[in-house]
Amino acid sequence: MAAREWQLPMPDFAEGSGEEPEVVGLYVIAPDGTPWRVGFAVGNETTDHVTEKKNYLYLAHAKLRFCAYGPELFIGDLPSNLVGNVRILRDGETLWEKSFPTGEDNMCHSLANLEYHHFKYDQFLRPGDVHVQFMGTSVASFGDGIKTQVGDVFEISIPEFGRPLSNAISLVPSKNGLNPIKSL
Q1: Is 158 in contact with 82 (CB distance < 8 Å)?
Q2: Which of 23, 65, 79, 150 lies at 20 to 30 Å from 134 by C-alpha?
Q3: Cβ atoms 142, 16 nearer than 8 A
Q4: Phi, psi at residue 181, to the nearest 5°?
Q5: Lowest-confidence pick of 28-32, 62-66, 73-77, 159-163
């Protein structure tokens, strides 16, 4: 079955839009404040690597982008060693493609450590909240000199997780942009 392509909005002030293929943990907070892991999915933690490269202190700004996960939910324990594939399509042709290792054998931190540090904060334990935790990556096309453009499609897959995640970059105008904030 072919992947369904969803738009991945890029703000008009962004200098780039790059993929970060990752495993995503999906959680819900129970009525008593206990976090429950629902499962895992393929994720794309989209980042403006062009802005980030100017100064590492711009990392937070570069990360404040739309991200995506899905389209399927993997239920059960995270396999310790997975190999995914990411590619960028431009006008229907493969522009760039690379495999990426993931799973705990390929992560800097254990899943238990990531979950512990995320959920040790009371503000993350509000009943009914849903959390999406991106687990990190070691692969990005930007590192290979690729400059994406509007209309490019990111396709990320991990065979064990089902169908690939597919997102096309679209440009959206910012509501406030670089306009000054007004005082009362």
Answers
A1: yes
A2: 150
A3: yes
A4: -80, 140
A5: 62-66
